[in-house]
User: Fold these one by one.
Assistant:
Number 1:
Amino acid sequence: MPENLLEVNNLKTYFFTRSGVVKAVDDVSFTMRPGEALGVVGESGSGKSVTALSIIRLVASPPGKIVGGEILFNGENILEKNNDEMTELRGSKISMVFQDPMTSLNPVFTIGYQIAETVKRHRKGISNDQAWQRAVEMLDLVRIPDARRRAKNYPHEFSGGMRQRVMIAIALACNPQLLIADEPTTALDVTIQAQILELMKGLAKEFGTALMLITHDLGVVAGTCEHVIVMYAGHIVESAPVRQIFQTPAHPYTIGLLQSIPRLDEKRGTRLTPIPGQPPDLSREIIGCPYAPRCPRVQPRCRQERPELKPVGRGEQLAACFYPS
Amino acid sequence: MDMRDREIQPASPLIAPDTNLMVPAEPELLVETPGVIPETEGPKERKPVSPLRESLRRLRRDTRAMVSLGVIIFMVLLSLFGPFVYQHLGGIYDSPDNGPIPATVYRTFYHQELSRQDELPSAQYWLGTDDLGRDILARLMQGLLVSISVAVLVEVIDITMGILVGVLAGYFGGWIDQVLARLTDIIFAFPGLLFIILLTGIFGTWADTTLSNVPIVGPNGNARLLLVSAALALVSWPLMARLVRGQTLQIKEQQFIEAARTAGSSNFKIIWRHIIPNLFSIVVVAATLDISNTIIGEASISLLGLGVQQPGSSLGLMISEASNAVDTHPWEVLVPSLTLAILVLAFSFLGDGLRDAFDPRTKD
Amino acid sequence: MIQFLIKRLIGLVFVVIGVTFITFIMGYFAPGDPIRTMLGEHFSPQLYAQLRHAYGLDLPWYEQYWNFLVHLAHFDFGYSFKTQGRPVWDILKDGVPVSMELALWALVIYLLIGVPVGIISALKANTWVDTLNMGIMLVLYAMPIFVFCVLVQVLIVFIDQETGANWPVANWGTPWHYTWTDIQFKLAPVLVFGLAGAAYFARITRTSMLEVMRQDYIRTARAKGLPERLVIYRHALRNALIPLITVTGVTLGFTITGAFLIENIFNIPGIGTITVSSVLDRDYPVIQATAVLLAIGVVLGNLLADIAYTLVDPRIKLE
Amino acid sequence: MAQQQMATSTATGTTLVEVKGLKVHFPIKGGLFNRTIAQVKAVDGVDLTIRRGETLGLVGESGCGKSTTGRAILQLIKPTAGSVKLNGVELTKLPPAELRKKRAEMQMIFQDPFGSLDPRFTVGQIIAEPLENFKRGNAREIREQVAHLLEVVGLNPYYVNRFPHEFSGGQRQRIGIARALALRPSFIVADEPVSALDVSIQAQVVNLLQDLQAEFGLTYLFVAHNLSVVKHISDRVAVMYLGRIVELAASEKLYELPLHPYTQALLSAIPVPDPEVEARRKRIILEGDVPSPVNPPPGCNFHPRCWKAQQICREVTPLLEEKERDHYVACHFPG
């Protein structure tokens, strides 16, 4: 058994559109240990969702295509698997929960059916009854009251928060080793977000499932994850244990993000420090550090060379910056 | 009307509009639209691109639509100037029946040269003659003129009434909306073709006698055309109005309408400056596609003997006359049929192209 | 459900009243006098007055209309003008089965050819298969149906001449009978009619299928590890077919009208042919009856579609 | 009591907007004859005063009626009942023409940076529209004002002839702000102005709004679901739940000492970007979902999710009362 559950090396996923090649994920590498909770933070267009979809190989193609790198899951390269092997893996070893619970469930099937279907697909020789039993069990686990009766209901009879619980039930039904949650609470209200995060955290621990939580909300990762990756313009700019990301951020972008969001516990009268400008257009060739045009610490070198992700300071903290703080 | 109508306006809101869906939008890339002006860069020399200009640029790249547009322009020019040119290209013909006659006589759509029936194309009759010895090309050009005139007339009424009633019903709701809803219910249940058949059948002879003295539209068996156009417009505008109404409801929900109200704009100004301009694309597409229906409608009515009368010409009438001799002279039925098919297809292709060009989902 | 049915039946009555009113008013204000036309050379004032009374034409228009509605409620369409004294139903009853037969087979072709072609196109979207399919479908769909008829006739003539076959160019066999001769008569019009509609269905199916394939729940189905076959046939198709139900419902009624031109060109003795000849003869009772029949057909088609909807889509509950 | 308290603060002359008993009910039609079979009680009795020059934050979860309240104050939605006074003028009873004139004093900034700008207008036309409506100068003067407004919101006036789709979300939001400022209003309702923007852009817009307030002496009603942002920008914050205000206090105070159980749960649910803080915090996880505003629970409408609920909460609707100085709460058992 390899030490790492997941090892992504130099992943490149490009979108071939009419207006040019969009390098959505460009040379991304990271690892995940079994049972680890990893947060992937970034703004829209930073490549975090595409990274996740690449791991489960669901990037819409065309126009998307994984053009390089390798994704080792339990030591095996996912990118070399054929379609059948891949469908074996999806939903059983690697599962995914998506952003919008309102549209992620099929409206014409009962939720019980949609959970049982996954179980039937991955547990050879299980009977319909047993699969349904498992579905009810899972609904119970995600704390849907009156699970036995509710399993026979259709998705439209559930609220957004409830549907996201169902999605989690589907994802965890086969005890996966890795659960990828792509902005699972963005579409939900804060009080519901708290419920869902709590539930996901608890169940992932209970099942021993590694959790990859993708979000744009730094607060969400602070309370949920052990390790954090910050993405910008298709690159990982910083990677560190959660405490270091927040206490000693090294990359100017991470620092910028932390200073630009208002905090509930801040003192009155503080002023936000915005990041000037816009993220770059990924369909154009970017020379040098993609953050250079917005960076307050930019040096001539940053505009010519692309910095590699390198250890900074102590321990496991990595940053892709020539002049980390 | 056949079921074509409902492609423009689906009977149920649950039917997705029949647009050509391109590749699914990639999840994370949508926010960054190409052409976004980076704040950090200085002003660049580039013309502002209006949404309309962008759509036209997309249309220009659509070969099929552009070929169709070319065909349509050619047919319009042919119907308007074709007869004049054609009649000046032929010389004097010494007719066994009528003596020497110039091309301005024998190349008219109504001149019968009974000694020259059912001929194949020749130097004198470029597309041959029909069973009464009339010049098929001349009749074809006249038929095209009829088709195009009816289409223009019907679309003018269709668009005017459709926008007027549709916008009022969508924007204000109330009784106009109720009346429109009931009207379209009836139109949907009352087959348009039957209505037109009824109207032209019942009032046809009246039109023949009353309107035949009206200049331009009256003579040469065209007296019923106004009636046919009125009937076609009558069944088509409620559908246009319904489409406009639906679109108006959607635009009305957009925040820029609320913003205009906050800016102190009156209802009239909001409708005139914000709603109607934003209806432009959908109305243009619907009208283009509806022209096909109108042309088919007129041809159908003439085909059934209820539209243009002898000695007049219409593509439908030509097909109807020639179809009796389909087994002996297939050429005579093929010429008007194929012309009609090409004309109608051209409008359909152009309409499809326009829809793709205007649909932001196909934006590159 | 009951409430929904009541609502729709009220709507049906409303539409029938609207349709009959339009046809009635048009007939009432039409120039010319049907009785005078009917009598022709044999005109005599007494006979004229007598016939006018017999047809109820001496009453004010609203009483005439009311009488018509009352008779209609008893499924009595009145008597024809042209063939004096012959009940309208007697004239229509031969045409109805013919038109229904034509429409039914056409519908079968819509579904059996249109839907699969649409699905294949959607799954192969933007490949040459799709382009070819949709090109053919667009031509079939946009071309005037009578031009299509004529082209087929020309083709049959050509084949007959070249091979010495004796395939008929027009007419209809015995309704609902399928001997080889019957099939020879029926095949061409049914195919023409069916393919034109199939093209429409193919386009709608393709659009609907593509729309569904973009949905998040399809991605969920894939993320669950379902093989693509199940994703398409279990998760996508069922949702994609929902809009088709409405289209089918609406089409039921419109199919009858589409038959107008086909019947006339192929010389098929259906409702369409009867209607056109009665219009030419200004036989109003027959015209009104066909209009009512068609309207009821359309509304019932829609109603059936609405009911079928609730069976397929759990989101829709009839109030 | 509370009503009187509020009334006295009006008397001091610092009140710009005064809202009393505001209700917005939307009918649901259905049944055999399309009668109104139910009401969505989107806003169900809201009292508010907004002081001149302050920012009043209005927070709540989706469907709580906060946006509807903002729109009803501006008379973009006709209130079902209640009164709205701007500068002492009753707005709900103004005839349409008078109301249009009044719009120069009250403006709105919208949530959707894509939908709030007419795609067929150029930036110049968008910003000029209010100026033209109120005849603020001839064509040349309006052009100059537009250019100035663009500079004020940090956009290059060079782009005046561009169309909205050529700008990014943040830039579009600036265009919307320029339009709202054009008539020099005293009162602006900002409806989720940053929630559609990326986090790094949000701060730019928040700072801009603050700068403009200082420069032009604006009064904001800042409607948002993000409590961190609301707290940052607001002087006072009102918390809404199911069409009613449950708590209103100075923003520091509300955060430090929330009195209503819902506010307490809401605050504890908001993640703080600091793992140390997160590790120490105790979360109140609310059970269940927000009930439907068609059939709100009787009494205090929060009682089905409240851990403090007693019999009285199920029967008697608590009024918004001043429990501490300038701290209003609608709860039978606050604290």
Number 2:
Amino acid sequence: MSPLTTLIIILGLAGLGYLLGRRRAVALVAGDTRQLHSRPAYHGWLVALLAALPPLGLLVLGGLAGPLIPGATHGAGALLAPAAALLALAGLGVGLARISPGFRARNAVERVIGLLLILCSLIAIATTLGIVLSLVFESASFFRLYPWHEFLFGTEWTPRFGGGSKLGMLPLLWGTLYISFIALLVAVPIGLFAAIYMSEYASRRVRAVAKPAIEVLAGIPTIVYGLFALVTVGPLIRDWLAQPLGLGDSGASVATAGLVMGIMLIPFVSSLSDDIINAVPQSLRDGALGLGSTPSETIRHVVIPAALPGIVGAVLLAASRAIGETMIVVLGAGAMARISGNPFEAMTTITVKIVGQLTGDNDFNSPETLVAFALGLTLFVMTLGLNVLALYIVRKYREQYE
Amino acid sequence: MNQMTQAERSVQTETRDVKFECRDVQVWYGEKHALKDVGVDILDKTVTAFIGPSGCGKSTFLRCLNRMNDTIAAARVGGQMLLDGEDIYDPRVDPVQLRARVGMVFQKPNPFPKSIYDNVAYGPRIHGLAPTRADLDAVVEKSLRRAALWDDVKDRLGETGTSLSGGQQQRLCIARAIATSPEVLLMDEPCSALDPIATAQIEELIDELRDRYSVVIVTHSMQQAARVSQKTAFFHLGHLVEYASTDDIFTSPKDPRTESYITGRIG
Amino acid sequence: MNQMTQAERSVQTETRDVKFECRDVQVWYGEKHALKDVGVDILDKTVTAFIGPSGCGKSTFLRCLNRMNDTIAAARVGGQMLLDGEDIYDPRVDPVQLRARVGMVFQKPNPFPKSIYDNVAYGPRIHGLAPTRADLDAVVEKSLRRAALWDDVKDRLGETGTSLSGGQQQRLCIARAIATSPEVLLMDEPCSALDPIATAQIEELIDELRDRYSVVIVTHSMQQAARVSQKTAFFHLGHLVEYASTDDIFTSPKDPRTESYITGRIG
Amino acid sequence: MSDPAQTAPRPRRSLLQTDAGTRRRNAAERRFRTYGAAAILTAMAALAVLMFTVFRDGASAFVQARATIPVVIAADVVDPQGNRDPAEMAKILTMSYSRLLDQALTREIARSGIQVGGLTQRDITGFLSAQARADLRRAVLADPSLVGQEIEWRMMTSSRVDAMLKGRITREMAARDARTSVAQYDLAMALRDRGVVRAGFNWRFITAPDGSDSRPEAAGLGVAILGSFYMMLIVLVLALPIGVAASIWLEEFAPKNRLTDVIEVNISNLAAVPSIVFGILGLAAFINFVGLPRSAPIVGGLVLTLMTLPTIIISTRAALKAVPPSIRDAALGVGASRMQTVFHHVLPLAMPGVLTGTILGLAQALGETAPLMLIGMVAFVTTYPSAPPQGLFDPASALPVQIYNWTQRADPAFFERASGAIIVLLAFLLAMNLIAIWLRRKFERRW
Amino acid sequence: RNQIQVAGSSTVLPYATIAAEAFADNTDFAAPVVEGGGSGAGIKQFCAGVGPRTIDIANSSRPMTQAELADCHANGVARVIEVRFGYDGIVFASGINGPDFALSTQDIHAALAAEVVVDGRRTPNPARRWADVNPTLPAQEIAVFVPGTKHGTREVFEEKVMAAGCDASGTRAELAALDGDKAARAACTALRSDGRAVDIDGDYTETLARVDSNPNGMGVFGLSFYENNTTRLKVAPIDGVVPTVASVASGEYPVSRPLFFYVKADHFGLVPGLKEFAEFFVVDAIAGPGGPLADYGLVPDPQLAAVQAAVAAEHVMGAD
Ligand SMILES: Nc1ncnc2c1ncn2[C@@H]1O[C@H](COP(=O)(O)OP(=O)(O)OP(=O)(O)O)[C@@H](O)[C@H]1O
Ligand SMILES: Nc1ncnc2c1ncn2[C@@H]1O[C@H](COP(=O)(O)OP(=O)(O)OP(=O)(O)O)[C@@H](O)[C@H]1O
Ligand SMILES: [Mg+2]
Ligand SMILES: [Mg+2]
Ligand SMILES: O=P([O-])([O-])[O-]
């Protein structure tokens, strides 16, 4: 049996279970459904869930244990599908048998769904765990090859072929923070103002067009932004800002990358904030307007504070993307690892170097490659701190309405 | 406050200026014609009561008077409404300035999700009415006292306004509205969630405000209308059926609908 | 409905079972001790009125009775509350089932941002009370009629519930609550935004409900309490000061606080 | 103590005249509003500029110059044995077929009397696409009866000739270009004037698989579109329900304690994990541990799902948080369970946020390259994956990968293709999001 | 699995795709799937083990190291065939509108070295213009875009240009005299980090874009890349030799390197067409002069016949 047929069989049985369960529940009380503790649909659902979930679980577990490649011919895989089908049948039977007027099917269904919800949350946890694990081991090998304090506090980043590299991450960290900061400096005000305009001032028509249009900015592949930074924005900034100000003549610069990345991040701030601002009850706006405040005062004093958690979430999402972005930095900011306050100089970020070192031409067990994992881990810890801070801010300043 | 007789009041009424002059006011919510040909003169230094069955358009009319209907996308307003002789729907009129002069207490209490203090201080702050912190404190305390809320909340001014009980929220909204000293105060059922004692205090406040301001109050309590107002308007199905001095309305209504509404009252 | 004399009612009272038995109920909002040692027996087939000054804890107690306080993170409840002899705070109790039996009308009208029809139909739908569409239509119409809203909205059942006037929203919430035919109905100031006629209709409804259910009503109107209830509980500053038959409370209150509250009433 | 509440009413002022304070506040209001409009305009302008660049560079990818000339399938070239045995004929490599084409082109030049000075053999061979000989060979092997006949054959010109017709290569540039010549330019123009070479819509660009570095004109997006489609299918089917479910649990059901705080912070933190790290994870978990194949959309889809989850979760949670508690109270009050409350009332009201998260998440997933690098999807794949579910396990490419690849290739014709591919990707994105955008508009409401 | 999987050097990638496409055109085997990723990453994957989950061929722009081979053997990849299929030239080119350059390895070293010896002391490189390095060169600001350290090309550049220039100019001897041999070697190949030598983490198209947008820019490219972009680039002869396929093949042009691919002979029979592909890659019609690879810019291996024989004989590494 191919996985597809197995799946169809299981889902078919579940569908059948729903119908049978429902029918049986109704039949048990001779059509007077008020005598049932739970509505017939819940009885049906429970049977369906009992028929579908255990075999699906089995399939997933079996798939994790052995390759799930279709047509795989080894014994366990071949047994898996029939076993699952049998399990589905058994679940169907058990489900049907349990139906009785007093049976709390709704509670049972809800408990199952609750468990599924928890399971879904666990996927996020498992991902984190997976990421930490996949970073930790290789990082450990790195720190066996390279002193940790030089990595953490070194101010020079010069990887070399065949050893002798200096792998201090401070210049990368600085670049990451600097570029992200500039990007947020562009994205947050523009995005927030755009959101405010869309939700509070714009007509429905304008909003219906502007919001998806701005979202296109998030869909443009970053390579396009990168080329845009490299070919258009970089020279522009160099010729019109950096050189006249005497601040250098580098085509690639932190300002270029930050600016272009900021544009990419606008929809992350604007769309999400717009939704949240829109969800603030109208009565709060009325309250402020009724006191004679202007719409902008209403927004600044009442609406934004009430929408703060969502807005912080949006900004955090934008910041996250800024930190994780590669292509724009590669093309826009250059690949110079250095610490400088001049925004018109080329710098680079941790993420760029993770990608670079990982996909580069170094021996895989050399510190030059393994440093990517250490960088990843450092970044992880760093952003964790950032998120804790954000959580704290939200908790502290949250204005829960109603 | 309640000692003043009805007669005393109606005498004073005649001498007052017209604050709001409304002619032919129409409101549509989309297709629904919610207010039809409403014409009324609201006097200065007078308490005007709007009465009428639920859904007859009282709140709608009230919201017209400070252009709060602007915020409802579906609402369209027609006719003429003059405040001190000036058309408030004139395109040159700034609704913000209008609303600063015409304050409002909404039917559903809508405190800001801020501290109680900030709720009351909000108006004075934006209008720059209290230059110093001490002034602001004074305004807040005074407003809360007048709204009969001070004793309930004086120890918890920093708590959020949404954690108050229903009646406390209502009084908070009243305090918030009077803190900006508007010329006209529109109150949409300000006492609906209040106990008799608090109601009495708010009525006292209204009476006190009448010395200098014009107050419009929507109420479902005939007794309250009779107690606090000098003029009463009776609305029915979107029409202004009758508008006269409170005494006349309650003692000799002209329109049979008014009469049946008033006599249908209970208790 | 109002023809029945107080005497007739009080006689019936004695024969009724205890529906809710509450002992020593405590509620804290964070640090604030909002309800203290409240003990009360709420009878079946009886209307019980909760009265007391604004902020005294009436709504808080009401929300305890169907565990709506569970939704307030800061709220902690102590003491014992038995519904038909079963502790509703027992961990094995499903609050959902409890709330299906103990319906509630909230102080602030909170219609769903859905159509009027769906607002009312929601309860019957989830509880499977109306198997067919026709049944559902019938339940919706019946509930809206009993809540005295049918005539206002029969042509606009598809419009959203939030576009109704304040009083209409309040009646919509009543219709929503009675549509599920709960055994106990908790009503937090159900008539606060209603005109006298609508109020009378709701009171009639309450009286009618009393035949089969237990109704608890919070009200600020002494008259209303006297009119509709057989038992009255007076709350003050978080304490249940006095609980007795309505007649006794209004004619011979035992506690001086009750007396002063009742006599302090106006009109 | 000055008490504004006590002072006489402010002097009566006309509504039509604004006082100083109001003027100032109105100016602030106008400024604020202008900022808003400016923000929108800035974003739109940026979009317009980017779109303009993309279309300017990429629109021409949808057009391709083709030549139609009679070709003689000379038996001595394609079937030296002369026995029409397909097995024998298959031993003749495509390179030999280019002789047929060269001859055909030379004949055509002679026939139409074109005089071009300095035309070399290289110019002739380089005039037609390398794809042409492969196609010809396939046609001949499929139908050996063609041998010895003259057939009217329509084929692509090389990328350089194509660029000449599109005006991207001028005569002066041709002189400097090591891969072409002035003579080839003149030939192209002459053949165009005679209608032998003509530009037409380039379906191949959308349907064909990738072409190697020496055949930019033959490169298409077929495999990439399929691959992206499969991956997006997986992402949508997994990330949306999982993300929403996780958000619902965290926001509505999870006890509020340290543990859930940790989970919450963790999920936000996942959003900041560079996408390539998800590639590391995918490689370790799905390929090395579970044993799924490399370069397969299933792995790509799973990796992108993990990457998209935080975006969806963060926006969904924010939206759930924004639903006023009174709505929950109302539902609970009529005896709805928490589950029913959430699914019947809260989630529909939070839907705009959910959909926004989906739109942003899918946009990100659709455009992401870095994590695919580690799981083998940044590859040259010329075989279409089959239909799902088997097709999910076949090697495939993806649109961003194709774009990334093409921008790295030496022939400038690939740059045009990359820009064209971006147009396709944006169209794909729009098509994908259209439903979401429409749904979001439906769910948007105020209360 | 019925498709051959190839991964590795991005330099070899275009040649591998051309060969793969031609292979699919001319045989009934499925077209191989070719990935880039860099030589090191390719070899790492290649050596991860045998079986359908591992790749069959690793492309590399440098010979496999002993360590890597040992890794392969340790993981059960016993039979690795090394195939050198041609050479690649590395060229210096500047914007088409700029002045002509005729460089030598010494000039390049002197312009780009992090440190030079002045008056017997190591000093940070003071040169700002090319004319500072060699008066015959234009007085143009030095701005060279060099492949970043993730690229194999960088290693060749360091070895064949920087180190060679260092030797030729005698700087190396001076450095060795100051600090010893080891330090001298490191110093010879260290690039200045003051912004005049710019690392490019992207690929040649990025270098090209940077040269385009910087009038002083000069970049390091692969020969085939340059040949595809002669309308925008002007190549600089090194030591008087202009880089062409011919001059690289003859060894006249100094900066070149061999290109390889490594075949996992353990997969012969397991993956259909693997051996056929390996052989097809190096037939004269493909990798020889006039073939599509050479057309694209590959410098064909003069000893291609020997390579063909070795592949046919499945001559595995470490067998001799
Ligand atoms: N969510 C909350 N958080 C903190 N305190 C609260 C909260 N809800 C109510 N309180 C406080 O608890 C006390 C009792 O409130 P409750 O709502 O029960 O009053 P009530 O008797 O219903 O008054 P009203 O007649 O004004 O509605 C009040 O002092 C109120 O401020
Ligand atoms: N936003 C709205 N959209 C559509 N119809 C509305 C809206 N607001 C009110 N209405 C309708 O307009 C009519 C008048 O409403 P209004 O709120 O003015 O009544 P009201 O007199 O204040 O009643 P109540 O005493 O119940 O508050 C009602 O029928 C109501 O349903
Ligand atoms: Mg109203
Ligand atoms: Mg209350
Ligand atoms: O990809 P490389 O050729 O630089 O290893």
